[in-house]
Amino acid sequence: MADIIKTAMLYSTLIITINAFVVVLALVIEMQ
To answer: What are the TM regions of this chain, as residue ranges (predicted)?
Structure first.
């Protein structure tokens, strides 16, 4: 059970990181 929770947390963190990266990338493209 703990492994499933760890995996879910890892995927959540990964998704949040990717979303943040995409937002920053979009802002940089708009600023140019």
So the answer is: 9-29
- Rounded Cα distance between 22 and 26, Å, is 6
Counted residue by residue, the chain has a size of 32
**DSSP H helical ranges for 1-32:** 2-31
Q: What span, in angstroms and rounded, lies between the C-alpha atoms of 13 and 28?
A: 23
Structure tokens at 3: 């492994």
Six-digit token pair at 21?
Answer: 């990266």
| Residue 19 vs residues 2, 4, 5, 23: alpha-carbon distances, Å | 26, 22, 21, 6
